[in-house]
Amino acid sequence: MKKAARPIITSSADSRTLSSWKGLDAIAIGIKETDSGPVALESLVSNSLVAKLDIDFALELSEWPSFTAKAGEIIELPISEIDGIKRVYFVGVGSQSLEDLRKAGAQIGRKTKGTGFTVLDGIATSKEHVTAHAMAISLSQYEWKLTSKQEPKLGKFIFLDTFTSQINRANLLIEAIYSARDLIHTPSNIKTPAWLATQVKSTASKKKNITVKVRAGRELAKFGGLRAVGGSSPSPGPRMIEISYAPAGSSKWPLVVLVGKGITFDTGGISLKRPYDNMIGMKSDMAGAAAVMATVMAMPELKPKVRVTALMMCAENALSGTSQRPSDVITQFGGTTVEVLDTDAEGRLVLADGLAYADLELSPDYLVDVATLTGSATLGLGRQYAAMYTRDDSLAATLKEIGSEIGDRVWRMPLVDDYAVSLESDLADLNNTAAKQHFGGGSITAALFLEEFVGKRNWVHLDIAGTGRSDVDAGEFVKGGTGFGPRLLIEWIASL
């Protein structure tokens, strides 16, 4: 698998004057926003890293425009090289909230992308800010290309203090997000379900306490949703990839099961995705499966007192003579029958198999599914928040708080029981889309459909259709797959 290279993030306790530093190309200095509005840059640097390191570049700061120091605002000062240093960056950190430090990190990351600079980072100066800031730097520099004429010039960012544990946590989360993004950005003509299974096995072979089981062919006889969706593809058929973290002696630990939608490409099937432009980004329709894979692969380093299993429900929703038809009735794992009214509502069919399998065979303490499921979630919440559904008030509050702190933000949506009637079928137990009465709220009715397969479990559904993709390069995100989910799930599991 092609992997994107990432910049080096580290820290140093060396607080001597600049003359003792070797190999630096640039210095990034954080400036806090004042209540008085734009002020002269010269008046802002007296208490900054410039003064602390006894830096004297003979900069004519009075000639530079006023600086508001709003989060992410940046001024770049080219200088005559002094001990190799070529640039000084003044970066606004706003009120120094976590979100402001993320904006500042993304800005300095983008500004130095492709330069190969070694940067002394004086923007994040407290333990509370370092992890978020470091992640933003690295995530904003993400770049994946199948081929490249030259290797990217990777930078190095040195935080000025001993932040070992915070940097280690940042690197753990960065690795997880990068691995999810790498899978998402891989073209669908390469990224078949069988290919994904091979990549998972290869990654797991380098990890401790990780096991992988791949089901295919006859082993999927009871998984009616997965077979119905994946049976139309000319490539090797669907796969259910089960990845487990369970160290020796962990049998009594709580079990978290994560189920990810893994549609490697989605044409919409016979119902055909509309309009055409919506199909172009569908190589990212397996972002949920990538998220749960990346999460469980981080467990050996995280070492939580929790067992974690990820179920990647992988299929290609292609269009062929063997495609499922609108009005077909399928039998999901566990026996529930579903009338398929829209073959473009395929994600819930593969998830239903995974959720029912988890409930009936694995008996989890917590059951979470992650999926780029509905356009309705994007219409309601845009690209900044994932739609979260759960009956557990405490769990909802915990995930919302963790998401706000770590950068994967979620917004709790209601499970409106009155809408469930729209899923009633004349022929089967359920329709796969709302039919008889149309209430709108497509993300809600999709969640109600999934809830039919989770039994009495503590269940959370994360619809990441909006947050899983970005249409532009902005902030921490690059155009394409964002890698949403792993840092939220990793931090949540660490809290259990």
Please characterize this protein's 3D structure:
- The chain has helices at residues 41-44, 49-52, 98-112, 127-140, 164-185, 193-204, 224-230, 277-280, 287-297, 299-302, 347-362, 375-381, 393-406, 442-451, 486-495; strands spanning 8-12, 26-31, 74-82, 85-92, 118-122, 156-160, 210-215, 239-245, 255-266, 307-317, 329-331, 337-339, 366-371, 386-390, 410-412, 430-431, 458-463, 469-470, 480-481.
- With 496 residues, it is of the alpha/beta class.
- The chain folds into 2 domains: 8-162, Leucine Aminopeptidase, subunit E, domain 1, CATH 3.40.220; 178-495, Zn peptidases (Aminopeptidase, 3-Layer(aba) Sandwich), CATH 3.40.630.10.
- An 8-stranded mixed β-sheet has the order 7-8-10-9-13-17-14-15, sandwiched between helices. It has a 6-stranded mixed β-sheet with strand order 1-6-5-2-4-3, covered by helices on one side. A 3-stranded mixed β-sheet has the order 11-12-16, with helices on one face.
- Helix 3 (98-112) runs parallel beside helix 4, helix 7 (224-230) packs antiparallel against helix 11 and helix 13 (393-406) crosses helix 15.
- The longest helix is centred in the middle third of the chain and has 22 residues, at 164-185.
